[in-house]
């Protein structure tokens, strides 16, 4: 069967502000650069295949030179479709050299019988900082779907000067989904990580309706975990937290239905 392969890479340098220095895109992975006001440009990754299924590969990467600032996101929610064979793979890598990155992809929706392997690796150097979010929705809530068969292997790593400062993994399987007590009755989950000077001093974000939120903060790191009753409730809570931590509006595509 035909498989989708996509690779996209963008690099930014400081030239009177943050400016694009290199751009490469191949296959189903594309990069959009909408015009926005302010000193922090936005970048939008797009998967033109329309979703992920078994054997697909999507590789995204960023390189930020010292002094640059960037908000990066995805054009819309990523959908993991039925995968009767091997897993679909999504890999995100970023090198942030004494710069500031907001990596704010929109949610991933797991369909029945999906199989997805996803990894995120971010390397910081010097006083670099990153705000990262990831969110996961179990099934198509608007269709009344209850997810019972799906597989996800998820790993995240942030390093500073080669030393890990945050690493975690997550696995979902039909066995996990068959025991709803393990998920606390939630059908949507999110995590936000802020790695920056003073991150341990952030105030606890307010909790929105339909979501539960917990904060852990220490030694230049803050982690916020969210469990929600629906994808909509998760998105609303994520938006509130991102706005508070970033001090700015969400990327335009979060509110525009995918139009930069």
Automatic annotation (TrEMBL):
Which HAMAP family does this chain map to? UreD
Give yes or no: UniProt keyword Chaperone: yes
Tell me the subunit arrangement: UreD, UreF and UreG form a complex that acts as a GTP-hydrolysis-dependent molecular chaperone, activating the urease apoprotein by helping to assemble the nickel containing metallocenter of UreC. The UreE protein probably delivers the nickel.
Q: What is this protein called?
A: Urease accessory protein UreD
* Role played: Required for maturation of urease via the functional incorporation of the urease nickel metallocenter.
Question: Which locations, inside or outside the cell, does it occupy?
Answer: Cytoplasm
Q: Name one GO cellular component term.
A: cytoplasm
What InterPro entries is this protein classified in?
UreD (IPR002669)
Q: Does the keyword Chaperone apply?
A: yes
Do you know which PANTHER family this protein is assigned to? UREASE ACCESSORY PROTEIN D (PTHR33643:SF1)
Any single Pfam family the record assigns to this protein: UreD
Which keywords fit this entry according to its UniProt record?
Answer: Chaperone, Cytoplasm, Nickel insertion
Which GO MF terms are attached to this record? nickel cation binding
Sequence similarity = Belongs to the UreD family.
């Amino acid at each position: 069967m035909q498989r989708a392969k996509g690779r996209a890479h963008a690099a930014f340098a400081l030239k009177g502000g943050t400016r694009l220095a290199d751009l490469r895109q191949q296959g189903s992975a594309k990069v959009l650069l909408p015009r926005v006001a302010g000193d922090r440009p936005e970048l939008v990754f797009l998967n033109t295949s329309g979703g992920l299924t078994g054997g697909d590969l999507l590789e995204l990467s960023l390189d930020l030179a010292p002094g640059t600032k960037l908000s990066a996101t995805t054009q819309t929610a990523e959908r993991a479709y039925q995968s009767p064979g091997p897993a679909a793979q999504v890999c995100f890598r970023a090198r942030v050299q004494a710069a500031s990155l907001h990596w704010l992809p929109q949610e991933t929706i797991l369909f029945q019988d999906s199989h997805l392997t996803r990894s995120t690796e971010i390397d910081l150097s010097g006083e670099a900082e990153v705000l990262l979010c990831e969110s996961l929705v179990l099934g198509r809530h608007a269709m009344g779907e209850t997810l019972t068969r799906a597989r996800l292997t998820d790993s995240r790593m942030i390093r500073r000067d080669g030393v890990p400062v945050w690493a975690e993994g997550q696995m979902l399987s039909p066995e996990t989904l068959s025991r709803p007590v393990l998920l606390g009755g939630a059908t949507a989950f999110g995590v936000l990580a802020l790695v920056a000077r003073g991150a341990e001093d952030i105030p606890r974000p307010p909790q929105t309706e339909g979501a539960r939120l917990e904060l852990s903060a220490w030694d230049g790191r803050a982690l916020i975990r969210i469990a929600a009753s629906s994808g909509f409730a998760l998105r609303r809570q994520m938006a509130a937290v991102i706005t508070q931590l970033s001090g700015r509006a969400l990327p335009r595509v979060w509110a525009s239905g995918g139009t930069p």
